[in-house]
Design a protein that fits this description.
The protein is about 40% helix and about 20% strand. By secondary structure, it is of the alpha/beta class. The protein has an 8-stranded mixed beta sheet, covered by helices on one side. Helix 2 packs parallel to helix 3 and helix 4 packs across helix 5.
């Protein structure tokens, strides 16, 4: 079982968040995804992540990257299993991906991280630039996720631009299509 907790939208007290985290742990999920706005804005987030991690639960962090600070990077890369940087605001997303890549270069093992462009509503031209250039500047980038809403021809074109070492997925209504890497 996997659980998604929109922790940032909840706006709970720290004690209430700890109570909910313990309740979720008691359900014994394999993965907890933390999202809902930007979890990096939630006070005490790292304590919550540690609770899940100590219980043997993988943590996926979904962030815009807007609140990512260099001082957070090492902790995020060590405590999360996966970091999905959402491409809603490209400037923030690119900054966060560069910070994660630099941080990962200094660690023996780290979270898988990449660009989640499944919710993008505008800025499709920036996706082309990202796949053709920026993705090549991020040697530890693990994935790029697109939505079928960008159109299958455009998705295939973007896939062809991305580095072969990057896992590219196109999320559809019922499944996801993956380019073998």
């Amino acid at each position: 079982m996997d659980i998604t907790w929109d922790v940032a939208h909840a706006r709970l007290s720290h004690d209430r968040m700890l109570h909910i985290a313990r309740a979720l742990i008691s359900m014994r999920p394999e993965t907890v995804t933390l999202g809902g706005g930007d979890p990096l804005d939630v006070p005490g987030l790292f304590e919550i992540i540690d609770l899940f991690r100590l219980a043997g639960i993988d943590v996926v962090l979904r962030t815009s990257g807007k609140s990512m600070h260099p001082s957070m990077v090492r902790t995020l890369l060590r405590t999360c299993a996966r970091i999905e940087v959402c491409a809603m605001a490209f400037t923030h997303a690119m900054h966060a991906l560069h910070l994660l890549d630099i941080g990962a270069s200094k660690l023996d093992s780290h979270a898988v991280f990449g660009l989640d462009a499944t919710g993008i509503r505008r800025g499709f031209d920036r996706l082309e630039e990202f796949c053709a250039t920026t993705a090549f500047e991020l040697p530890r980038l693990a994935f790029i996720a697109f939505s079928e809403s960008i159109g299958s021809d455009h998705a295939q074109y973007l896939q062809s631009l991305a580095p072969q070492s990057v896992r590219v997925t196109v999320e559809t209504a019922n499944t996801s299509v993956v380019r073998a890497s």
